[in-house]
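Ticket #4471: structure export looks truncated?
Reporter: QA, pipeline team
Priority: medium

Steps to reproduce: submit the single chain below to the structure queue and open the exported record.
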Amino acid sequence: MYVIPEATLLSDNDNQSTMQQAVAQAAKMQTCMPILDVKGGWEPDPILWTESIDKFRNAVGNNSLKWACAYWPYLKTSVMTIDQFDFKNVNGGDVSTLDPILNNATATTIIQGIQAGNGMSDAQNNAALMQASPIYKQIMNLVQGLANIIPPSGCMAGVWALTDTTTGVFKAPANVTPLGVTDLTLPIDDSEQAGLNVDAMSGKSINAIRFFNGNGILVWGARTLDGNSQDWRYINVRRTVTMIEQSLKLALRSYVFDSNDSITWQSVISMAQNFLTNQWQAGALQGATPEDAFSVACGLGITMTPQDILDGYLRLTIKLAVVRPAEFIVLTVQQQMAKS
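Actual output as written to the record:
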């Protein structure tokens, strides 16, 4: 995973360049996925927030979208506690700016002592200010609240890791409660999520994180940016194929410089079939039998030509029936006549 939440603090041009380079790098390496963030999610306008989405879709570009994804909105968390903040977190640590705001004689004395170097630690001075001024305590609570608003990419990396550990990469990392998240910077309903799922013009999907009564906050999307693709629309499909491809590539290294003949081909086929059967049994591939879930081919006249063998190429071809998420569940209710 490529996770760069700090990219949201860059200028628009630098943010755009960072995202496009991350996606290009992922497409080149074919071993990972960037989890991107939309700029402007700390205090989104309840009406005009879609402008931030439009800017993101324009900035991320149109290349290699199947290798990346994004989530919205930003998350209010409880990661940082009040004791992790002090006067140094206000206006770059310039305590002189606090004096007229607090308008408190005791606090003024403490501030003057901080400026003069009163020999007390930062924690001691901060505790004294908290005791002397209710306004200062409110300021610290405000600073804590703002600092605990984060872009979702880092949290989603944890959700992915949790899903990978408990089930596997073939499980869509969705319908999961992100730990430590207390609220969202913007509530999203069904109609608003429809505009995030697929844009009519660009097709770039952005996954929603939503609040549901009785269930709390849930990750409610598992799409790559390539929302128009039938093959690579879902994160778990992209990551499952990547995992299988990279695993087989590593396994095939043991056959480098072996004789390029039928004995080696059959050994390669057996190795691949055993690995894919294990993945099918784990639930990564669909089908009633392994034959329905995948096929493996390797051999002269099948995947290789005589020229390939002369050039030293051994070609293995696999076909996979990857499990896809049930993103939309449709309930149909009809009336029927009483039978008796």
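Status: closed, not a bug. The export was complete when the record was re-opened. Leaving a note from the reviewer for reference: The chain has three domains: 2-79+148-220, 82-147, 235-320.
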